[in-house]
Amino acid sequence: MRVQESYPVDVDAIRADFPILQRKVGGDISTPGEHDDDDTPLVYLDNAATSHTPEQVVDAIVDYYHGYNSNVHRGIHHLSQEASVAYENAHDRVAEFIGASGGREEVVFTKNTTESMNLVAYAWGLDELGPGDSVVMTEMEHHASLVTWQQIAKKTGAEVRYIRVDDDGRLDMEHAKELIDDSTKMVSVVHVSNTLGTVNPVAELADMAHEVGAYAFVDGAQSVPTRPVDVEAIDADFFAFSGHKMCGPTGIGALYGKRDILDEMQPYLYGGEMIRSVTYEDSTWEDLPWKFEAGTPPIAQGVGFAAAVDYLDDIGMENVQAHEELLAEYAYDRLTEFDDIEIYGPPGDDRGGLVAFNLDSVHAHDLSSILNEQGVAIRAGDHCTQPLHDKLGVAASTRASFYIYNTREEIDALVDAIDTARELFA
Amino acid sequence: MGIGSDMYRQQIMDHYKNPRNHGRLESPTFTHTGENPSCGDTITMDVQLADDGETIERVAFSGDGCAISQASASMLTQRLPGTTLSELEAMDTDDITEMLGVDISPMRIKCAVLARQVAQDGAKIHDGEIEIEQTKTEDGDD
Ligand SMILES: Cc1ncc(COP(=O)(O)O)c(C=O)c1O
Questions:
Q1: Which of A47, A283, A412, B111 has a 20 to 30 A CA-CA distance from B142?
Q2: Which residue of B has its CA nearest to A367?
Q3: Total of domains in chain A
Q4: Are residues A152 and A24 in the same domain?
Q5: Do A363 and B142 touch (CB under 8 A)?
Q6: Would residue A51 count as lying in a domain?
């Protein structure tokens, strides 16, 4: 056993909020929810895919369903009014969390980061892009933005460009300067790479975008959950993230947009809730953000999202970040003890809380299966960054990603489980 | 702890480390290649038929990928000789898991059945039933 220093967050208290962390795994998976035959303690290191949900958030959702479940903005009755207040306030709460001073008018609730990206691509991109225009992304873009802009570019005749990733997994900012030019209408960049762990200089990139009159869209799917984020300090025009990666429920995410820009944009989905007035001939739109939230929205999820933000704020995002960095560095150091492990991305003291790697001579899928047999949940594959993996020259990698409830012992368990795979394949 | 594993039993590891009939046949009746795009597994199967044009005489494979896909291909090259093309055609996923002798988790079934799929598609192309360049299994989103 190593000598263990303390953590920036109270890990024991946090773990107590997440009952799922106590469960065992390994039994029959065809009967979800029945765990009688599970016998292996769970080591959950797949937080970049989705985080777990603390009791406080589940309770907020239960309170909603037990206490004031109702459709919003429609009924004059009491329950509907309570639900509407809660759902609207949730927008303000999430806005406050990311430093959006415009409050609810600047935060649209969506299904997830992917939908936030598509919303802008369809509502803004289809109208505004055309031949001669360019959209600048990075080689480390998640498919959520890469595929979206690539396809919108195909539809509109615009060009997509990718800022090079250097050998250390960092953006080549000289290349960025070359690519972002007068043709550029959108610079869409990932804040924290979900594969390399790189923390990109998004404020600088936003400046570069603004200098040529382009918008800056930041994919914050991995940054908002793991560090303090201030969209106004970054000066992002758009910013997207998902509730399920930050202690919230699935089915909810957010699009931040500067008020003036959102105001100018046409809706992306049409229907109920988003209109002010409708005749057989024409319609007018609701105020922000409702203009972009057609149909019955994810009300319970919105309430849960706000509760998740409360939960994280109670811990303190500076502390969350410190914990992430501590674990990332620890994992990086432990994995670099082995010559047969290749880690992708920047050094341990300069990355977000995840480590993607490959073990020589063991395919990532074999490795993850063997880790799974030992209760260690990690992700194997291309993590929705297939072109980046092509560039790295590998079909797949194995990724361990950490959150507020993870410990050094769990990283030790990962390293031991890797050793089992190594022995098996020796 | 020991190095036991549910899926990676000795037989699988043995076939992975010492693949049988690995390489190419000199004069295959047909040859076909396939891949699992999401895992990067690739398999080429060479099949040589007997003079009756129906009975499989020899099979060889080459390729690259995870242990499950490669071991499955290796075992198949031993299993197929002596069977007919229609018997090959009738092989399903259960036959493969039975051949492997271990429970394959749902996420890994694609890897396990790739070699069979390649052999079956190769036979169909040979019979003129289908026209494809390469077998591609469904790409999982990961
Ligand atoms: C960097 C990044 N962008 C976008 C996404 C997409 O998030 P979601 O699947 O919640 O839309 C993810 C997560 O998978 C991600 O890591």
A1: A412
A2: B66
A3: 2
A4: no
A5: no
A6: no
